[in-house]
Amino acid sequence: MRFPYTGDGPAAMPVISLTLQANGRSIEVEALLDTGASVNVLPYEVGTALGFHWEEQLVPVELAGNLGNSAARAIVAVGQVEDFPAKRLVFAWSQSEGIRTILGQMNFFMEFNVCFFRNDGVFEILPHESD
């Protein structure tokens, strides 16, 4: 399935609408596909909207780059893109607010095959076929 880049010109970015589910709750977010991100990153406010409690998450995650000074904890949510089968996605739930949801190498790009056609302003996503 092909998706258009969001925005115009050089500032256009590969952003998708993603439905996340956890703890009996569901929320739709706009997420940036980032091939340079080692992990999926979830903003603090999205994690709390999904019913996660910071003090109950015991697995710390070390972030780098712009979020290197932000505390993060590992959480798991179910993510669905369009009509594709839902996938378990692991996130570094950042204590930072006002950041973008990021889909990175671990584990979005392990669950979905993604091909970028930047010059055409589109990208393609296909779910990874289970063995």
Gap from first CA to last CA:
21 Å
CATH topology: Cathepsin D, subunit A, domain 1
Beta-strand level of the residues, as a percent range?
Answer: 35-45%
Spatial order of the strands forming the largest sheet = 4-6-5-2-3-7
> What would the average pLDDT be, to the nearest integer?
95
Q: Helix coverage percent of residues?
A: under 10%
Give the secondary structure arrangement, pairings included:
Layout: E1 2-4, E2 15-22, E3 25-33, E4 40-42, H1 44-49, E5 72-80, E6 87-94, E7 101-103, H2 108-111, E8 112-117, E9 122-127
Describe the overall structure.
There is one protein chain. The radius of gyration is 14 Å and the shape is globular. The strands form 2 sheets. A 6-stranded mixed sheet has the order 4-6-5-2-3-7. It has helices at 44-49, 108-111, and strands at 2-4, 15-22, 25-33, 40-42, 72-80, 87-94, 101-103, 112-117, 122-127. The chain starts with a strand and ends with a strand. It has a single domain, classed as Acid Proteases (Cathepsin D, subunit A, domain 1). The chain is 8% helix and 42% strand. It is built from 2 helices and 9 strands; from the N terminus they run ββββαβββαββ. The chain has 131 residues and is mainly β.
What labels would you give this structure?
2 helices, mainly beta, six-stranded mixed β-sheet, 9 strands
